[in-house]
Amino acid sequence: MSGTSPSRRQAPFIIGLVLILAALPLGYWLFLRPPPPPPPAPPPPVVVAPPVEEKLPDKPVKMEISEVSGTVEVRREGGNWESAKPGESLHPSDAVRTKDGSYAVLIGGESVVINMDPGTEVSVQELSSEVSRILLESGMATTTVRPGKLHMIEVKAAGSDAVARSTEGTFTMTNDGAGTVAVGTRQGEVSFLGNGKVVIVRAGQQSVVRPGTAGPSEPTQIPTSLLRKVQWPAGRQNKREITVQGEAEPGSRLEIAGQAFSPKKDGTFTRTVSLKEGENEVKLKVSSVGGNAEEASQKFHVDTKPPKLKITPPWENSGGQGTPAQGPE
Question: Which of 17, 160, 216, 232 is the most buried (most CB within 10 A)?
């Protein structure tokens, strides 16, 4: 044969071209095809909110008259004074008072106990789970705030801006109704405020606010001697009234012949006492905000009857002359 035919020479070229053309789709699919879209993101997890715990309303704080002795009266808002009985509930604007020789105990929930001395008046201002506010109109009251109750007691003195606050402990406040207010602490501590000044009265201390002073005095140790002097009248009397004078610790509370009262801001006092015919014993007692007490007494004999006058005729006297004899008629 003289040479290779053209068709045989072109065959490899054609085969190669066919293979290349056949490989193009495969190469496109393998290398040029865009990547598949990413799978859809999973839905976010469903967050179930915890159930909202409904806050129960605060349980109303009750204050009640726990104990009475003697003549104790209660007055509802806008009402008249009536005899108080144990177990009666007190509400804001209610008031309680003890007469001479009487006392009462008030209990506020599980947190507060108030002991009212004779001749004392208090009124309720506010009662809640966090605070109890009491107004001491006059007299002496001892307040205890039980520990661990997260409760504050506030006692304000009427006729003054003096306020005592405590969250735990026992303290006593007196108010003479004329601007002299004293606070003494037996347990815990008390914040005593007045005229923009605050002092901390700790156990065994007392502080006094007097009219015209710059707030509470600096706390001092509770004195043990309370009666500075007493001036008693003479023991024999021809009248049924006497006047007793003296001087006691300022801010203390006095009781004489069953009558409770407060001394003046300087501690002096004057009191008129009624007596009965015959033998009398007058007792004077003074109590401090620290819980100390002191007594003094004096006996009196009262005789208001006029003396009996006996007139003896001259002829009955041993040294006198007898009846003159009559002469003859």
Answer: 216
Could you tell me which of 123, 107, 105 has the C-alpha nearest to residue 115?
105
Radius of gyration from C-alpha coordinates of the chain: 48
What class does CATH assign to 63-221? mainly beta
pTM of the model: 0.74
Q: List pLDDT tens digits, range 158-175.
A: 999 999 999 999 999 999
In this structure, the number of other CB atoms found within 10 A of the CB of residue 5 comes to 9
Secondary-structure class of domain 227-302 per CATH: mainly beta
Q: Which of 242, 301, 240, 229 is nearest to 272 (CA)?
A: 242
- d(CA 289, CA 247) in angstroms, rounded, equals 16
What's the pLDDT at 28? Answer: 63
- Closest C-alpha among 168, 218, 212 to residue 192: 218
CB 260 within 8 A of CB 100: yes
pLDDT in tens, 10-44: 677 777 777 777 666 666 666 666 666 777 777 77
Q: Cα dihedral angle (88, 107, 177, 93), rounded to 10 degrees?
A: -50
- Side-chain-facing half-sphere of 153: CA atoms under 13 Å: 33
Q: How far apart are CA 50 and CA 121, in angstroms?
A: 52
Residue boundaries of the structural domains of the chain: 63-221, 227-302
Nearest to 60 by CA among 155, 124, 140: 124
